[in-house]
Amino acid sequence: MRIEILASAKEDLISGAGFYEANEKGLGSYFLDSLFSDIDSLLIYGGVHQVFYDDLYRLLAKRFPFAVY
Question: Less CB within 10 Å around the terminal CB: N or C of the chain?
């Protein structure tokens, strides 16, 4: 399995981290740690998720309202 983080996804991660950090100190870092943990899990569990857009799998983040394709 190949995992690729697109430039637009990086912008979403940075924006999300800023949003959560503005709400509570340290929450932005926790957000990034959580999302990257979910992304890393794709190396183990990739391919078992529901398919969207014909060829992309969707992983719903465990702790935040985000989806990883």
Answer: N
Transcribe 8-65 into DSSP letters. HHHHHHHHHHHHHHHHSTTHHHHHHHHHHHHHHHHHHHTT-SEEETTTEEEEE-SSSS
Report the C-alpha gap between 2 and 12 in whole angstroms: 20
pLDDT of 50 strictly over 90: no
The pTM of the full predicted model, rounded to 2 decimals, is 0.84
29-64 burial string, b = 16+ CB within 10 Å, else e?
A: eebbebbeebbeebeeeeeebeeeeeeebebebeee
Residue 20's pLDDT is 98
